[in-house]
Design the sequence.
């Protein structure tokens, strides 16, 4: 039975099949669409997409990334009316939202365990994941988009992936306007940068307390709590706020330790 959060997808609405040649003209493996292939609609600079990619790699599930280009926005809305990535497409079902993707993978690929079985550890992991997805994502995202020192990098990383040279100036304007509106509607603008930094420092210090003396948040193995938190913070390393991470060695060491776990390294390199 498909998970209740899945949405059916018509096969003709997926990326068009290409001729099934074994290699292309540059001698690279063919990227022909195969019906049972798992697709991940995503963007490189999105922490939620990185979270989904890390879960897929940790579970050893092969998948193909489909970059959310400007031209694919309508295709994405058919899969996820919220118009957000990541979206996982598997067996004619679209699963949107990194939380749902993680739970779908846990149900379909139980090993290695990312969501602990014990009630207390499970509750702890769920609370940390929610904190990372909501509080941390809000503060890291607001600083990334509102700090003028990040302007060039954020636009290059996002618009550069979403559009080719001709459309890029338009996409830059659109993504910047949307980001300003997103934070503006909750009263957060450039004047809040100092407050956002202070809140982030407090959050990083609380995280250091949780991590002290442990390789990962729940002990010896990484769980979804680590993955969700890592995804938000590692993306921050590309922006001016990376100095906040360097100031908390326990957190910086944990980021390094997690980045060295082979499936995580593979997800970061993909
Ligand atoms: N709760 C969602 C959040 C996903 C999300 O915010 N995605 C962003 C990229 S980081 C997005 O697609 N933004 C485009 C938009 O909102 O139009 C999840 O966990 O997947």
Sequence:
């Amino acid at each position: 039975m498909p998970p209740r959060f899945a949405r059916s997808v018509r096969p003709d609405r997926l990326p068009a099949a290409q001729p099934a040649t074994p290699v292309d003209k540059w001698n690279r493996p063919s990227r022909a669409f195969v019906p049972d292939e798992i697709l991940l609609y995503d963007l490189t600079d999105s922490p939620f997409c990185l979270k989904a990619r890390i879960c897929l790699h940790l579970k050893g599930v092969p998948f193909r990334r489909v970059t959310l280009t400007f031209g694919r926005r309508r295709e994405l809305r058919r899969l996820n009316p919220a118009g957000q990535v990541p979206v996982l497409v598997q067996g004619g079902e679209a699963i949107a939202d990194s939380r749902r993707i993680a739970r779908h993978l846990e149900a379909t690929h139980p090993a290695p365990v990312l969501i602990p079985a014990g009630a207390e550890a499970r509750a702890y992991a769920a609370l940390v994941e929610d904190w990372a997805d909501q509080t941390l994502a809000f503060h890291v995202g607001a600083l990334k988009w509102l700090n003028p020192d990040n302007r060039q990098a954020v636009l290059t990383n996002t618009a550069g992936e979403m559009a080719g040279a001709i459309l890029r100036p338009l996409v830059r304007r659109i993504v910047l306007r949307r980001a300003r509106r997103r934070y503006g509607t909750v009263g957060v603008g450039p004047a809040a940068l100092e407050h956002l930094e202070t809140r982030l420092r407090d959050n990083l210090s609380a995280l250091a307390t949780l991590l002290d003396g442990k390789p990962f948040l729940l002990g010896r193995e990484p769980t979804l709590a680590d993955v969700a938190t890592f995804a938000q913070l590692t993306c921050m390393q590309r922006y001016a706020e990376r100095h906040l991470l360097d100031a908390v060695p326990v957190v910086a060491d944990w980021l390094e330790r997690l980045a060295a776990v082979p499936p995580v390294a593979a997800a970061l390199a993909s």
